[in-house]
Amino acid sequence: MKNKLSVAYGIIALALFALAAHIFFIQNNNSDEYNKRIMSQRQSRYESRTLAYRRGDIYDRNGTRLASSEKVYIMILDPSQMNQAEYPTEGGEKVRNVIEPTIQALSEFFGFDPEDLRKQITEHPDSAYIRYKRDISYTDKQDFEAYAAELNSQYAASDDATVRMNRVDGVWFEETYKRVYPYGSLACNVIGFSSSDGTVGTGGVEQYYNSTLIGTNGREYGYLDDEADLEKVIRPATDGDNLVLTIDSTVQNIVEKYLDEWKNGDIGSKSAACIVMNVKNGEILGMASTRTFDLNDPYTPGDFTEEEIYEYGIDEAVSDYRLKHPDLEPITSAQVPEYYSHDEIMELGETIAMYQNWRNLTISDTFEPGSTQKIFTVAGALEENIISENTSFDCTGNVRLSDGVNSWRINCVNRNGHGILDVKGGITQSCNVVMMNIGFAEGSETFMKYERIFGFGGYTGIDLPAEANTLELGFTTDSIGRTQLATNTFGQNYNCTMIQMAAAYASVLNGGYYYKPHVVKQILSADGALKEDVQPLLVRETVSSSTCDFIKDALVETVESGTGSAAKVPGYTVGGKTGTAQKQPRSDKTYVVSFCGYAPADDPTILCYVVIDEPALPGEEAAHSSFASEIFSKIMSEVLPAMNIYPEDGSEIEAMTPDTLLPEDEGDGMVAMGSAAAAGEEGTEAETEGVQILTNNNGEPVSETITPEEAAAASPPATEEYIQGTDEEGGELPDLLPDDIEAGVAPQPE
Amino acid sequence: MPGIRTGNVNTDVRAGAGAKGTTAVRLRNGKTVVKGAGVVEAPHAGAVKRQRNYYDFSLLSTLIFIFAIGLLVIYSSSQYLAAQEHGSASYYFSRQLLIGGLGIVVAIAVSVLPFNYKWLKTGNGFVAKIVYAGVLGLLLLTQVMGIASHGKTRWIEIGGVTFQPTEPAKIGLICIIAYVISKYGPEINKWKNWKQVVLWTLPIAVLIGSQNISSGFIVIMIAAIMLFVAMDNYKVFMGLLALFLGAVLGLKPLLHQIILTAGITERPEHYALRRVFGWAAPEIFTTDAYQTQQAIYAIGSGGIFGHGLGDSLQKYGAIPEVQNDMIFSIVCEEFGFIGAMAIIIIYMYLLYRIYKIAVNAEDLLGSMLCTGVMAHIGMQVALNIAVVTGIIPNTGVTLPFISYGGSAVFFTMCEMGLVLNVAHKIKV
To answer: Are residues A228 and A160 in the same domain?
Structure first.
């Protein structure tokens, strides 16, 4: 028996040795080949994973977070893993129930439609990557994972063999970021918005500073080293830099509040916009328009009416047709309904409306600025000693010009003429005739030289995208004719942007230094360290400080006793200039009214420029600059204390009532402005120190140079700039813009 | 009186033992490293002053050692899947530790307590028959109210504990065969006597084999080896062995040729046939051959020295349920040929210890019990490795003490307790 026991043991031992030999054979002969096979299997299993970078945050100057990137998760379904778990050996026995328990868990936890889940999973059985749901919060992700783990341990511990086969599997979460704008539409045009993956910014600093805000994606990947060890390498993502804006969200809020109030007020307008900036360094503190949109949901057509959207749609359909059918005859607007359904037109229109909504009116839209230009006409002439501060002009109410083909009578704001006005009076009364005369005295070369010095016809270079090119929208020394020179002197017949006007004003207010306007103050690294401190960039010096001082005096007087009375800010001495521009085509009688002012008077710091496009009133009733002046006043009365500039007289701001701010006629609209009764009251109001009054309240001349007829015809000094209606033929501004010159209808340069 | 001497007791002790008539076995608290034990003719029984029961610490420590290695490999191979499926990387590891640890405690208890394997003989083998009847009952019960898993009814739940009755059934069978053989002694060579062994084996073999062909095969092989050891006949058994080896080595190419010639591409219905077809023609029945193929890749990629502990790639889901039957492939991948060889040698040593106890057992019953256990463990190890290396079809045989699996680990530990008990009854 012992022998046989030994034999039995021996046979088993031999068998084991034989098996060992077999293993040796496998390993010795096929090691490399099998390694490669495993590696290739493994590589295909181990997909490398992208680690998303975090797009930089955007803060206002006080550290308020205006844009942020929230960590969210994308839920990924992995049907291939589910199937693999159910049938580990392909086509073999089913060892797990995964798909149904997983669908159940997902629909119970997240409320997903089980049918849809089932469809996704069964239709893509081999897919390992179905992005099922975006924007899952961290807590939801954590809770679901805990829930699934709990379910799985319950299943595993179940007494029922069928239940024991159940597992939740094949669901995972990919980390990503979602752009969040905590204040919704606040400063929407300045901030812009980013694509959901955080790679592309549209509009605002999101676009302009996109390369700063984005980071570099990291990667997690596996590779097999020389010993065929799976090495997991994580190259972490580099997060984007943060931006600190010059925008002050308090100021921005105030600006938006009053623009909104205007928009929803009794009158309203096509649009209105405002820039608040620090004149000493070009920092933009607030920048807004009545066109706003929610940065968290930018893809909406906004406030446009259906008619407007339809109109946009018609226009877009014309170019759409031309694009799609380049060989065919283009269609006209009238033909559009034949080729496009109403829904298609509306759809095209909505897209355009959306783009319109995203426009930053303050830098992308151009307009004829009107009288706010006047200070530059004066400043240039003073600087070149063409006029002195004491030069006087006689305003007869209009200037007649002729180029031999056409003739124009260019009216002053006061049709009856201001009479004798000195330079300062020309500004305070916003006299066109004075300006035209100064312009003629300067000549086109000098005039255009100063236009360029003040930045018109160029770019301000503000750090925001889509700044309008105004070069083609104004004249050059060569192309400008006498008529254009005449109208350019008071801001008609050339186009500029709001930011150009604001930056040019700032340069006069700060004593002659033209700073590049900018909205970004600092660039911080992802961990908050200062990477770049944006210094004020002095682009050039404009005019001498004495010229600036004269202009500032004139601007203060304009508000104190001139056309800018409505801009008064209780407790402060402010300066500013009104603008009332007639839009093209002139026959439409549409207007852009504006006010560009500053405070404090003795140390100009804050500039506020308000522009209203087409106040919603018929004809000349819309042409009252006080609409803008009032908004300026309201905004400044809150912005100044917010910027730590307190009333000079120490009075309490709260004690002021709006009534004290306004000329008395302002209450019921502008209709009564031309009436005699109103005019009489105006005269009384205007009787303040330092104002050059040419007529008294009774219309009697106080100056010998004015005839009684003239005096009788002259209105009292205006406390507002407005355009009077006229029935006379030819009493219009020329329509000419540079384009028209090329068309050949323009007067020839002299 | 047989005695077992440890190697480092050496020849002088052997000489002295005879001269002085005293047993000079120094077991040194079992710490002695056994380099090879020799069987020494016992001196005169009357001369023994003080008889002590032998205890095979070598076997016990080898058992614990191999179980510990098993735990290590289970953790390494299953941590990925465990974390995936159960949310805890140590899920399989801790369960194995718990049940295997319990098994070791039971084994030690069985080996030293008043328990005596000779009780099997009590009342004309009444106890052995009770044990047999018990396991047979369990098997029958499983057929009736078992738990289906993987498509077959192999599990039963009694008193909140779920286990595979196949494992205790093997113990029951070993017990009854050992009893029958010890009852007849040399008379076992007679047909009417060894026929009884066949009769006792058949019901269990059929019941187990109906659910699990490979386990049924192992049961038959255990009986065959026990008979071989007990009987005088060589030729028949050697013929059977040759037949078996021939089948293993020849069937694969033959079947492969048949499948190719007949152009069979349809997968058979029966799971066992599928596995056989997948084994014979893996290039056609790729899905059925998948697990084995992946295991062979794992073994091959390990090379001579392996990738190192924890560095297996195939454990990341490539080999399904890798901690069970296929665990040896991960051993080969991580530890290479050296590691695989080491494990095989440990098994051979373990089997050798059982062999020694069988040789030195006090009676034939003890010898045959040890023979049965040796046959069982030896068969499982050999078949498991043969499956993993693709020599035989995928049968679902676990690697004793190393593969994850509660029932198997616990009951093989119990078997080892039985062997240790046999050893403990040896007087030295």
So the answer is: no
Per-residue pLDDT reduced to its tens digit, A363-410: 999 999 999 999 999 999 999 999 988 888 888 888 888 766 777 788
Measured CA to CA, the distance from residue B318 to residue A38 in angstroms comes to 9
Contact B371 A5 (CB under 8 A): yes
Q: Are residues A89 and A204 in the same domain?
A: no
Of A55-69, A413-427, B38-52, B400-414, the least confident: B38-52
Please list every residue in chain A whose beta carbon sits closer than 8 Å to the beta carbon of residue B378: 9, 12, 15-16
Q: Which residue of B has its CA nearest to A226?
A: B307
How far apart (Å, rounded) are the C-alpha atoms in residues B41 and B43? Answer: 6
pLDDT surpassing 60 at residue B281: yes
Q: Tell me the C-alpha to C-alpha distance, in Å, between residue A501 and each of A92, A203, A281, A376.
A: 78, 21, 15, 10
What does pTM read for this prediction?
0.59
Any idea what the CATH number is for the domain that residue A536 is in? 3.40.710.10
CA distance A456 to A471: 8
ipTM: 0.83
- With residues binned 3-state (H G I as helix, E B as strand, rest as coil), the percentages for chain A, rounded to 5, are 45, 20, 40
Per-residue confidence (pLDDT) for residue A661, from 0 to 100: 34
Q: Name, in order, each residue with C-beta under 8 angstroms of B226's C-beta and a sequence gap of 6 or more.
A: B174, B177, B178, B181, B197, B368, B371, B372, B375
Chain B partners within 8 Å of A12 (Cβ): 351, 374-375, 378-379, 382
Residue A157 Cα, gap to closest chain B Cα (Å): 10
Neighbours of A119 (CB within 10 A): 11
Q: Are residues A452 and A531 in the same domain?
A: yes
Of B230, B314, B337, the CB nearest to A38: B314
DSSP, res B208: H
Cβ contacts of B403 within 8 Å, gap of 6 or more? B70, B323, B324, B325, B327, B384, B409
* Closest of B389, B428, B422 to residue B116, by C-alpha: B422
Range of the domain at A84: 70-176
Q: Comparing C-alpha atoms, which of A421, A336, A359 is closest to residue A387?
A: A421
Cβ proximity of A69 and A180 under 8 Å: yes
Q: What is the mean pLDDT of chain B?
A: 80
| Domain end point (choices A148, A176, A204) | A176
Q: Does B304 touch chain A (CB under 8 A)?
A: yes
Mean confidence (pLDDT) of chain A: 81
CATH number, residue A303? 3.90.1310
Alpha-carbon distance values, A161 to A166, A663, B157 (Å):
9, 89, 11
**Residue A725 and residue A606 share a domain:** yes
Structural domain count, chain A: 3
Task: Report CB contact under 8 Å: B307, A23.
Answer: no
Helix H segments across A342-478? Answer: 342-358, 361-364, 374-383, 423-428, 432-453
DSSP bridge partners of A607: A277, A598
Judgement on whether residues A402 and A306 belong to the same structural domain of the protein: no
B344 at A interface, C-beta within 8 A: yes
Residue B85 in contact with partner chain A when CB distance is under 8 A: yes
Please determine, for residue A673, whether its predicted confidence score (pLDDT) is greater than 80: no
Distance CA B98, CA B84 (A): 21
Two tokens at A741? Answer: 């010159």
Q: Which whole number is the average pLDDT over B20-43? A: 42
Question: What pLDDT, on the 0 to 100 scale, is given for residue B11?
Answer: 38
Domain identity same for A112 and A198: no
Q: Decide: B373 and B350 in contact? Cβ < 8 Å.
A: no
Distance CA A188, CA A298 (A): 9
Q: Flag whether A552 is in a domain.
A: yes
Judging contacts by C-beta atoms under 8 Å, the chain A residues touching residue B332 are: 23, 27
**Would you call A34 and B301 a contact, using CB atoms and an 8 Å cutoff?**
yes
CB-closest option in B302, B379, B391 to A27: B302
Distance CA A381, CA A373 (A): 13
